[in-house]
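[job 4417] fold queue: 2 targets
>>> target A
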Amino acid sequence: MSANTYTFTCIGSDAAALARLLALLQVAMQAPDAALPEPLNRFFEYWDEPCVTSASLLGTTLRCTVDTSAHDLLEKPQILAWHASGAEYLRVHVFNSQVGESVTTYYHSGKRITAKAFPKPVLSEGERLYELVLEAKDGALAKEVKAGASSNATADGVPIMVLALRAGLVKSVRALHDAGVDWTACLPWAAEVADLIGACGGNQREAMLSGLLHAPGVDLPALSRLERVARSVSVHPKLLQWLLAQPGVDVNALLVDDHSGQETGSLLFHSVEFFQDRADVLKVLTACGARSVPPAQMSNVERLTCMCRGYRDAQTPAQLAASGVDLETPLWREYPALRMVMRNYMGALGDLRLAQDLLDAGAGVDYWKDPEAFQEEVVEPLLTVYWNEPSNASGKLVSRLDADACQIVIGTMRRVLERGVSAAMEVSLQVDDLETRHEGESPPSACYAGSLLGAVAGLLCVRGSILRPLCLPLVTLLLENGADPHGPCTRNIHLSDRRRIWGGGNWPELHNPWPEGASVLAYLQERQAKAPDPIDAAVIAAMHIWAATTEQGTSGTPALSGPNR
């Protein structure tokens, strides 16, 4: 979406008026949907839903940034409103994202002036450096520090290091560290600083964290209990070992969320979330006698989230359900645990085992009776070839679909269908060849619309596909649950609303013609007549058994069997 981004720089001699403006702008930042108070409503009265994104006051210079629509222009009454509210001099910089151009204009007492006539702000060293932070001039700030500017300068009482970290100025953060910043001044913001060092510290992260922990006056027992500090330090085993050896630091103390003040569990309890159960970190914790201690009080959302993330000591779905936890509790927006697991599935079989446990414990599936949700949250996760599939020496994708993996995929689909989701559901998708995605501007694609049965047997799990081992057992499962092999399927058509799914393997089916409007059974029979294949023969036989049973009017579908099931 195109937009105008306005940056207003106001210089005035009435410090109280500028302070009042700053307070109003900060309120507007915190409540963007609220009605703008006077005089802000006059500043932006001609604009469509303006949004104040930043505001600062350095000495006698007020600066704020406002995002609004690309067609919103600055009118004369707006300029006069700024002047009437304390801005003797006004600089307006506007960037239009639609055309990628920017314009800067200058005003004094409502009249246009030249850039040279606009006074330079009178700033302290800290305010001058903070101005570079506000303008995101990372290189310029780093250059100033290297040239001798104080690494311990402050603006509005906040160290320039904290301000640079908040702005994500990587070069400046490193320059300030190299210049010997006084980490003691950063201790009031220790949790935030430790967290931000992880993003901006680069290969100096451990050294910066060490500087923070070694700062004179630091309270290590208290600091070690802050969740964001513990998280940042835990990925550095040597530093963690040193911290845990300090007097008063308890490896089993409950960590504290510095925002809410709530206790969130011990460091080992958070091992999956903080450091992904790294062996070198676990070795340090084990040597220090660490135990997984959960928080004394946990909401249902927290208990379900711990289960989804695979936390130590997390309860199983059956245990949670038995203790009265509603498995349909939304964890994000309207999505309960089962939907979250499937939406985030990226090939880890442990996630599918968890999905099966949730289904076995009674998690609902009514939302998957909607074709779009079923395709996005069941079909695509189960039948996509993932980016992290292993490759052999030639770079070709190697299937991880061993017998165990196939059983888990089929078992998950079986549970979903047994809970009442229709096997006759239609899908609309675009299949791209993952192995050849780098050849040319886009990978070879095949668009498909029709039954899920046709997508499985005629496209996703065809001969040569990495998913080939799933073909017969999945076809059999779909037939057992009412899928019709005679339903028409369409290939290589234009689909305005389709979902991408990745496939892989020696995959000629992407390019083979599909008879117009033919069923998957007709397609497979034609393909088999030209080039026989044993799995396709078994699939065709299973479909014929289904057809014969249906014609005889037999109630109930007999179990189908065949090789590879």
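>>> target B
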Amino acid sequence: MNTHDQQFTENIIETIGWGRTLVFGVDEYQTNSIATYLRISGLEATVGSIRDDLEAEPSAGGTEIKSGRVRFESVVCDDYLDSLSLSALDNALSNLVDLVGKNLILRVGHRSQRVGEAAERDRSYWEKRLIKLGLRKHPRYYYAIDYNALELESKGSSITIVMERPPSRLTEEFPLAALAEERDLHMDMMREQGRRSDAHMIRYHKAAAFIREGDRVLDAACGLGYGSHILAANSLAGSIIGIDGSDYAIRYARTAFPGEDAPTFQVGFLPQALKQFDDGTIDFIVSFETLEHLEDPLSFLKECHRVLSPSGRIMTCVPNDWSEADGVDPNPFHFHVYDWGKFHAQLSSYFLLERAFLQTASRKKIAGRWHVSPREWTEVQTSLQPDSEWCVSLAMKSPVLSSRSTVDRAISPYTLNKHLPPYVDFNGQYKNPWLIRGMVSIGLRMGNEEVLCQVAKDIELADSDKADGDAAACILAYAWLSDENYQETPTSLIGMINGHLARLQREPSTPINIRWKVSLLYVSAQIHIATGNRGEAAQFLAKCIGEPYQDYSILLGVKVASAALQLGVMRASDGDLNGARDAWREGLMVGRAATSLDWLREFGEELQLPDFVLRELTSLFDVVTQCATALNTINKLPARPYAIERIKENKSNRIIELTRSDLNNTRSLNSMRIELQEVRASLEQERQEVQKLKYCIHRMKQILGDSAKNSIHE
């Protein structure tokens, strides 16, 4: 199996999950390879018979195949349908859809370039056919298919499509014909094909990436509910509520997306419908193309701020200047014309701007004129105002609690356990535990570094005598280490850290004080190393190693083992091999402590652990392994420089390096893709101008009459 096919097969599992899977393919070897890979991954996979299952006359009931098996949860069809004539295709598609219990992954044009009639069957063609047969686009559609790459598809190129079967009640109560009648007011983009469908669905897919585990999510102005369904399928949200002012929309959503763990839907007008929620009881709000429909959008944003928890997020979008020459939006349902400036000014009234994205489906205004443009979703700096069809932004409610903010509920699903180890006892250890989500935890916190540092400065000044201030000091120190142009100086940072360390030295050695003392000692050493103060750095590393880190958690051992490894390297480079051995042995002792820990004391009785616990343990053993390798190879230095390569080998670091390499490659590809899109857009614009010119010449010929035709040349 080649790399492309292996990626395709991995996508099958990650897109549609586990379940009984039926695989069809025109290439017997490849079809068997896909089925074998799925079996090795734990799925029950069966290879179907094209002749018996797809080329047979469709069954009357549509529930069984020739072998007597009922519908499979998932069906994979690889490189078969595009070779069929139109009449044979009708029959095969009908049979194929009959076999789908829940999911369908279809790939066409992978083995060979499609030509003739088959080449004309683009993505929209296949989507339209499958939707007409009762399927809808899958909520994980854009996990398997890159949105921006859709623009690069050409006639005859390979296409992958992911569909799902909706509840039978949906197609009975809301057939496509009935849905078409409501199209001016309501659209289920999962039952549409083309650019508009892609543009609306991708927003929810992107938004899901910013939902934290356990978040209480509100989809404000949810329409027919397809966005809430996408959020649920692509996140670990604790709950999702969709609200819309249309009785029809909510009735449709409840029919289309039922289930015990599915989103709930209710009728309500904005912003009044938010009054039902207490302060700080929602963690994430998504509301796309809503603000322009509200007479008073600021009142809505104010209510969103009230119901969001500290560090809670809102993701929203508006059309980017859809006005005509008179400055008025021709859409009668739009009360406002937005551009980036107005949009961000209103958001900034209540929230911290975190990220911004430009989105285009088919057109955008450039210098006041509409231009044909390719699909695009690109992150941009929040200070920019790029040309785009829509403005999309993610913003955060400040994690800093005001005097009136009293949000008393768990900030993580794991803090609900009876036994609370120090590493998750946020409520007991911080003045403002919501800082964990907004400022402290990588992956959860504010993604805008400039805003993050400003929040950290405010916290460090206000709470320098608490764990909150200790955490803020670490944030500011690492900001300088990652960007030497950062406005703080190393001297001021060291002075700030020393102030925190002096206070921690005076106070009792509580678990949280130990946690931040170790972190501050370690980051202080990194600043000293970066500025060439090796002696001071070695002292701070030695102090870090000597702290009773296990009184907080074995997880803090990652910092201690890293300090031991680094101190050993410094001593070895100075020729002090015995001192290096002593440091590395300290690192090895951290590994010994991790292998002999009391699991119940450390992690509690619950079998369910936060992901980061085992990930941190993995990182710990990576560093300890480096210490062990250093001890084993130190006698080979300096004669065998390869020993240093062995010591530096670290799985976590390699993953980071590979990720950086992938990101760099992705950035290069994105740059090439954007350039290609711009060329295509320019060519399309020129083509339209040529068409206009041809039309003008044609009209002139008609007006001037037959006698003038010979004197006009194209």
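[job 4417] complete. Note on B: Confidence is low (pLDDT under 50) at residues 61-69.
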